[in-house]
From TrEMBL:
Residues 7-82 form the Sodium symporter small subunit domain. InterPro entries: Na_symporter_ssu. The chain crosses the membrane at residues 15-36, 48-69. Keywords: Membrane, Transmembrane, Transmembrane helix. This is Putative solute:sodium symporter small subunit. The keyword Coiled coil does not apply.
Length: 87
C-alpha cells in the first residue's frame, strides 16, 4: 500500500514528537536520578535523590502525557484524521 505524501508527513511529525518525548523521559528517569545521588541535602525531610526519583519524575511523566495528547489532537485535526463525535 502506497502512502500519500501528506500521510508520510503526518507519521514523520508523530515519530519526531514521540522521539523527543522519549528522550525527555530517559533523561528524567535515568540521568537526573543518577546525578541526584550526589546531592546530599534533605528536601521536605527526604534525601533529594529520593524526591527526584519518587516524586519529581512523576510530575514530568504526567506533563509528558498531557503534552503528547494535546499535540496529537492538534496534529490529528490538522491532517483530518481525528476521531470526531459522529452520532
Amino acid at each position: 500500500m502506497q502512502l500519500s505524501e501528506r500521510h508520510q508527513e503526518y507519521w514523520r511529525r508523530n515519530l519526531k514528537i514521540t522521539a523527543v518525548l522519549m528522550v525527555i523521559w530517559f533523561v528524567v528517569t535515568f540521568v537526573l536520578a543518577y546525578l541526584a545521588r550526589d546531592l546530599s541535602f534533605n528536601f521536605f525531610g527526604w534525601p533529594f535523590s529520593f524526591y527526584m526519583a519518587a516524586q519529581g519524575s512523576l510530575v514530568v511523566y504526567v506533563v509528558i502525557i498531557w503534552y503528547y495528547a494535546r499535540y496529537m489532537n492538534k496534529l490529528d485535526l490538522e491532517y483530518g484524521v481525528h476521531e470526531g463525535d459522529d452520532e
